[in-house]
Automatic annotation (TrEMBL):
It comes from Pararobbsia alpina. This is High-affinity branched-chain amino acid transport system permease protein LivH. The gene is livH_7. The lineage of its organism: Bacteria, Pseudomonadati, Pseudomonadota, Betaproteobacteria, Burkholderiales. The chain crosses the membrane at residues 18-41, 61-81, 93-116, 136-158, 187-208, 220-248, 260-277. GO terms for cellular component: plasma membrane. Belongs to the binding-protein-dependent transport system permease family. LivHM subfamily.
Length: 289
């Protein structure tokens, strides 16, 4: 066992943890940051993306297209839920929490009745490669690059597109944006669909790595909430650096003491951040700028 192979193993684990934290949190951060809605059904949108991806891939659709269809299906589900439920609960934080929690339970039980307790997954593409004495999944090594690509696309969307200008205006002052002629209700629908679609994309990307079960969203939602709480509502200057810091903590503790201590480290970090920086790291970066 060489020092170089150990170092590469640590870097690989950091990239894997970073991708998992970022992709799991993006949809939740977008919805909370712009709409002020804590979406407890976030995990079910992830599940939707995974199930649709697996079903499409098994029917012969190429995997990248199947993943896009999974993300699109989650986005369409987000539009339906926003129009039927969420839009009636704006500025009612606790009501929206209860409503999205109820949606989560309904979807989980419905999927359990319709699809059964589990669905056979699809094989992980690209195979594996060896470095020193360790073997690594090529697909999981690619996921950090995909996560950075998604972050780059979100940066362009929010800072370079017309939608981004309107969205940021609505975030700063929704009433004033509405007075200036913006259809804030349409923006909220698009934003909720975007957040749901990002969650669906996360499920689609991780569908080849796990068995699809109705409760699979719970595997992601803890990490998603941890990243959003630590980073704050701003996706670019909040959630992203928070995911990087949390990935370092989780990787170091997991490598030294095991996976359980890695999870404990994440939760302890949340407690410290809430105590010292209630608005998250994003607010600290904004004040620094």
């Amino acid at each position: 066992m060489t020092a170089l192979s150990v170092l590469y193993s640590v870097i690989y684990q950091f990239g894997d943890n970073f991708a998992y934290l970022v992709l799991a949190a993006l949809g939740l951060a977008v919805i909370f940051g712009m709409m002020g809605v804590i979406n407890l059904a976030h995990g079910e949108f992830i599940m939707c993306g995974a199930y649709v991806t697996i079903i499409c891939a098994k029917r012969g659709i190429p995997l990248p297209i199947a993943m896009l269809l999974g993300a699109l299906a989650a986005a369409c589900a987000g539009v339906v839920i926003e129009r039927l439920v969420i839009r009636h609960l704006y500025n009612r934080l606790f009501d929206s929490v209860v409503a999205t929690w109820a949606i989560s339970l309904i979807v989980q039980q419905t999927m359990l009745l319709v699809a059964g307790p589990s669905m056979e997954g699809i094989s992980t593409p690209f195979g594996s490669f060896a470095f020193g004495e360790y073997s690594f999944s090529t697909y999981r090594a690619v996921l950090p690059v995909v996560a950075l690509g998604v972050l780059g696309a979100l940066y362009w969307l929010f800072f370079k597109s017309n939608y981004g200008v309107c969205a940021r205006a609505t975030i700063q002052n929704a009433n004033m944006a509405q007075c200036l002629g913006l259809r804030t209700d349409h923006l909220y629908t698009l934003t909720f669909a975007l957040g749901a679609g990002l969650a669906g994309l996360t499920g689609a990307l991780y569908a080849p790595t796990m068995t699809a079960v109705p409760t699979m969203g719970t595997n992601f939602i803890v990490q998603a909430f941890v990243s959003v709480v630590v980073g704050g509502a701003n996706v670019i200057v909040g959630t992203t650096p928070a995911a990087a810091i949390l990935a370092v903590i989780q990787t170091a503790l997991t490598a030294s003491y095991g996976q359980l201590f890695g999870q404990i480290g994440l939760l302890l970090t949340v407690i410290v951040v809430i105590r010292l920086m209630p608005q998250g790291l994003g607010n600290l970066f904004n004040r620094t700028r």
